Amino acid sequence: MDMIDPFGRHISYLRISVTDRCDFRCVYCMAEDMAFLPRKDLLSLEELDRLCTVFIEKGVRKLRLTGGEPLVRKNIMHLVRELSRHLKSGALEELTLTTNGSQLSRFAGELADAGVRRINVSLDTLDPEKFHAITRWGHVDKVMAGIDAAQAAGLKVKINAVALRGFNDIEMPDMLRWAHGRGMDMTVIETMPMGEIEADRTDQYLPLSVLRAQLERQFTLTDIPFKTGGPARYVEVAETGGRLGFITPMTHNFCESCNRVRLTCTGTLYMCLGQDDAADLRAPLRASEGNELLSAAIDEAIGRKPKGHDFIIDRRTKRPSVSRHMSVTGG
């Protein structure tokens, strides 16, 4: 029952946004006065479990919970524990999540007990004032305490940092040393033109080819074939012994090897992060107690998965390539 798209790519990775809400308001991701979905529009935890289970039956081997901030979803650990049964059966190879770290002190132990083995923590700066400025509402000491709790619980942590020109580019060498010094891999990501925000993305945008050249003045970077199932291309850093990933949707897209689709908390399936085409899975989910309609809707959607995205950061229009915010689809 493996899902294969029109370009022969096996779809084995589902990223599911369990909520569009977040306790941060990162300037490259959200507007400060975001209007979130009414709670009544969200799928229940039981419906999310059922959807994920159908995808697993159809060949998904890796499942990542995202948001918004997934750990602010009420009773989220109930869903994590339910999904962990697929780890125990061997049907699912990995259950993981991407988090801003604000709630990790509270949930790290439970995540580890449920079979989560690694997580991604989004962290763009180590400077407390800059962190508060870019997240608007966040405090870096709370995230640090969360990372401490995650590592104490045995979770492997990877740091994700969005590279922003004039904000954290000069800080990247120190962040890299810090992450590798704590045994954490790090990935840097180009900012993506999704959703209306107050800032001008043309001012924020930093090509990672430029960042890599800057890093190579201090570090020896060697390309390696390491993969985690996502889009990052990795190098080994000789001076630290750690790995650094580059996610480059703008300068060098990774569409040719795309193995993933994204599901929102309302049951909308996006076959590509950078395209607006989507499929409604909530209607077939609720139309029958069986999963035949749902399975057919998924097959139809996978058959429309595009070859790639059309991201562009345009100084002339300053309009996002995709109108929805990253928090709707999940990072």
Strand content: 15-25%
Outline type: globular
Please trace the helix and strand order, writing H or E for each element: EEEHEHHEHEHHEHEHHEEEEEEHHH
Strand neighbour order, sheet with most strands: 9-10-11-8-7-6-5-4-3-12-13-14
Structural class: alpha/beta
Number of strands: 14
Sheet having the most strands: 12 strands, mixed
Annotation field: number of helices: 12
Helix content: 25-40%
Distance, first to last CA? 27 Å
Integer average pLDDT = 89
Q: What's the alpha carbon Rg, rounded to whole Å?
A: 19 Å
Q: Runs with pLDDT <50, length 5+?
A: none
Q: What report would you give on this structure?
A:
- The protein has 331 residues and is an alpha/beta fold.
- Helices cover 30% and strands 19% of the residues.
- The protein is built from 12 helices and 14 strands.
- The chain has helices at residues 45-57, 76-83, 85-89, 104-113, 128-135, 140-152, 172-181, 201-204, 208-215, 282-287, 292-302, 326-329; strands at 3-4, 10-11, 13-17, 62-66, 94-99, 118-122, 156-163, 185-190, 221-223, 233-237, 243-247, 260-263, 268-270, 278-280.
- The strands form 2 sheets. The protein has a 12-stranded mixed sheet with strand order 9-10-11-8-7-6-5-4-3-12-13-14.
- Helix 4 links the parallel strand 5 (94-99) and strand 6 (118-122).
- Helix 1 packs parallel to helix 2 (76-83) and helix 4 (104-113) packs parallel to helix 6.
- The longest helix is centred in the N-terminal third of the chain and has 13 residues, at 45-57.
- The chain is globular.
- The model has no long low-confidence stretch (mean pLDDT 89).
